[in-house]
Description:
heterodimer, A: 237 residues, mainly alpha, MetI-like fold, 80% helix, 0% strand, B: 235 residues
Amino acid sequence: xxxxxxxxxxxxxxxxxxxxxxxxxxxxxxxxxxxxxxxxxxxxxxxxxxxxxxxxxxxxxxxxxxxxxxxxxxxxxxxxxxxxxxxxxxxxxxxxxxxxxxxxxxxxxxxxxxxxxxxxxxxxxxxxxxxxxxxxxxxxxxxxxxxxxxxxxxxxxxxxxxxxxxxxxxxxxxxxxxxxxxxxxxxxxxxxxxxxxxxxxxxxxxxxxxxxxxxxxxxxxxxxxxxxxxxxxxxxx
Amino acid sequence: xxxxxxxxxxxxxxxxxxxxxxxxxxxxxxxxxxxxxxxxxxxxxxxxxxxxxxxxxxxxxxxxxxxxxxxxxxxxxxxxxxxxxxxxxxxxxxxxxxxxxxxxxxxxxxxxxxxxxxxxxxxxxxxxxxxxxxxxxxxxxxxxxxxxxxxxxxxxxxxxxxxxxxxxxxxxxxxxxxxxxxxxxxxxxxxxxxxxxxxxxxxxxxxxxxxxxxxxxxxxxxxxxxxxxxxxxxx
Lengths: 237, 235
């Protein structure tokens, strides 16, 4: 073991780790874009107790929250190619499923995972908006869609935002597990760089710093956005 | 080898995996124990009057919350022996479970400090004043009045953190700890990667059942302790 830290390597690898940030953020953004509407809709089914969907959402949330993300990743990574290859065979599509870019699996895993988290977030935040708000909106002639878009969702968002922030930060942290999909994001890039010279301590320090920076930034951005949204808060109180 | 799905492997894998739960439990319990101690110290620092203490405790929590478990795990796994090595202590022969426990204690401490702080702050200050005014000593007031009430408030959050810890603990396989997750990977490697899906499904079933059991346990416990108490209803 070398004595002390290898600072030159520390700085070089920092930029290697930094080059993985776009992929980590891309996964985060895509997952959120899929999970936000889906989570909201499924939360509505939970609240309105729509027969089959309600039960499905309940079991789904319980499963995703009850199992480690890494196990979910492995399950998707092993089951999707199996499913796809049988579908492709059925319709005679000639695509090799084992050559699909792993980022697609990452999109699937993390959006499924985040959807489950967001169902719970939205469920609790929608229930804080009183029913009278919807009835009042309808009574002044708004359609259901309008009422939700203009009245319910802004109020829900104020309550849900801190939890969405936590979910986002957790999502960014979870993308570090992308290495299991051989996805070249922050963690794997730095690991590969470290493999050559066994400078693991430096590499992990770099990864640690990169995540710290991203997560602090995300938390800060959410704080700013939360401030802007508080104008809707007076209605909720 | 042709890949196909065979559900019988799920049931075959279960009895092989379940004995290794004791490693998972052992790591989880020790991490909870040490983590709670760290959390208590941090919470005391946060609630104390010392500005520097508050800064340190809050900074610690923020940093630990922003670090993925896997990064922290490797940082401890490689960093601690290197750090000890520079002081002339050789830790390379240490059991991997020690590093896992250190990692998750550090992480659990950060979560617990928030749980304890919010539970303490949820108790009305008047409770302490009332207790002291009827002649209890400060220690008695904390032990008999504040603690039992804060405990009930902290229970659900404690349960959630425990679940989180157990799930994150599955990452310990990356540094070579053989818990349920590690054993599952060993079985798959032994099968030359065949039937990985079935074994992971078996694994997920184990975790799922465990999570539901823990959730229910804490739910019951909370009900039991809040019996006869006037708890403000939360939605």
